[in-house]
Amino acid sequence: MTATSHIALELLNKAHPPEAASAIFTEKVLHKALHLRPTSPDPNSRDARAHRRLQRLRKKEKARRRQRPRPLSAKEKRITGIYEIPKESQKYEIYVPLHRMWLGYIWEILGMVKGKQNWVTAQGAGAKIASADFHGAKLAVVRSKCVSLVGLRGIVVRDTKFTFQLITKKNGLKSLSVSFDLVETMTESIVVIPKNHTIFRFQIPQPDMVLGSSDAERNKDISDEDMGADALAFEIHGSSFEHRAVDRATKKFKQRNMPEL
């Protein structure tokens, strides 16, 4: 567009002399700077956007770490079989070292020391035995409402609220449960026997009688004859042990009447 035909110049000529109108038009219109906004984003705004995105990602990661995994339901535990002992692991000799380890555990609880005559009373040891863990203990059934169960003995491989699971020398897994009937479950070697109304007996030998010098002697099974005459014998009532091992450790047992006796 030429200067003579520009509408702004025509309006300036009406208000100013021709020389002044031409100077104003050239300075204010033709040579006016045109400021354009840049198309690329501001570096500061770009950094702020990345910072906000990083904060969101950190918040999500923190919330994910806070979430606890959902525990398995009873049905899922049965399906997965996480508490089942495989058939190839149901061998008595596998759990003999576990029994020797349990002996060291129970010696420490009762304060029994090698090379010293150890005296344990029912009043002093009763509370300790009641809160002890029996995984690895060698139990024997001495009294039960089902007389055919009397004499059963083995090493405890699982101690649950209503159950003692024993592995016997015949490599059979016996389950002492709350049921009163002999029920075959899963395999013929698993028998459900009552823990309630059942009395169990176990013996604790003196540390001098069973500690050996070689690994073969330490992993050897201990028979009743090897325990000696100084062995301590305890009888526990299954009706009072209907708690999980972890719950018994913190439970305070009180004296109460037991009508079944």
Fold and architecture overview:
- The protein has 261 residues and is α+β, with helices and mostly antiparallel strands.
- Helices cover 36% and strands 18% of the residues.
- It is built from 10 helices and 8 strands.
- An 8-stranded mixed sheet has the order 5-6-4-3-2-1-7-8, with helices on one face.
- A hairpin with a 5-residue loop joins strand 3 and strand 4.
- Helix 1 runs antiparallel to helix 2.
- It is rod-shaped, with a radius of gyration of 43 Å.
- The termini are far apart.
- About 4% of the residues have low confidence.
Summary of the model, kept short:
Helices cover 36% and strands 18% of the residues. It is built from 10 helices and 8 strands.
What are the salient characteristics of this protein?
261 residues; alpha+beta; eight-stranded mixed sheet; 10 helices; 36% helix
| Number of helical segments with 4 or more residues | 10
Unreliable runs, pLDDT <50, ≥5 residues? 178-188
Global Rg: 43 Å
What is the quaternary state of this protein?
single chain
Summarize the main sheet: 8 strands, mixed
Sketch the topology as an H/E string, one letter per element.
HHHHHHEEEEEEEHHHEH
- Biggest sheet, spatial arrangement of strands: 5-6-4-3-2-1-7-8
The overall strand count is 8
Helix percent band:
25-40%
Overall geometry comes to rod-shaped
> Could you say which structural class the secondary elements and strand pairing correspond to?
alpha+beta
> DSSP strand (E) fraction?
15-25%
Distance between termini?
120 Å
Could you report the average pLDDT, rounded to the nearest whole number? 77
